[in-house]
């Protein structure tokens, strides 16, 4: 086999990516990364207005993009998302499980229904969608890339004032889910990896960052800053492309070094 150039290894031309939670924040950043490398993009989130806006942004950048509104905390919606994507796009070569929810409350007072809401979207939804996509497309094709978005919150405990026990637990579960799925589905040539972002100024994290203070948050990172609109692009493309074809069952923290300080 003749070794390919680095440009060929990272090229996603002819591939199709489904990205949940893709209408803003980290999901939209990853959609740009995959689309800029040549992939066709299917975006999903709950709100059609957000999806229309994100799709227009990606299309303006020359990226072939479509969208489906779906709530991945609901099994019926999640299965419909996989089926409709395959009907409309003909393939799902890359699945990015990114949709997520959080809830702030002291552990002793955390509502059980809020716990269930977080787990249903952050863990159960990932499982159902990955299973559906693999059964319908990746396993028969014997090829695929699954990228699960975990968090550095799943690597360690947090300062007491953060009060995000359900979120942290869900993200720890995503890492275990990634390890196990990679071990089971390697025989189908499906690579399964996770990204553990640190603090980015996303809509979900904005309230927490503002309450603690952006400067204080940034001071915990050896690099002295929060994540920006480019910082997930590189690892996303590595995991999704042939440049990462021998990487599976792994997680990488993209956090400015916070997890090094915390000892993950």
From TrEMBL:
Keywords, comma-separated and alphabetical:
NADP, Oxidoreductase
Coiled coil located at which positions?
none
Q: What parts of the sequence cross the membrane?
A: none
Q: Residues in domain Ketoreductase? A: 15-198
List the InterPro entries: KR_dom (IPR057326), NAD(P)-bd_dom_sf (IPR036291), SDR_fam (IPR002347), Sec_Metab_Biosynth_SDR (IPR052178)
Its family remark reads:
Belongs to the short-chain dehydrogenases/reductases (SDR) family.
Name of the molecule in the record: SDR family oxidoreductase
Recorded source organism is Variovorax ginsengisoli
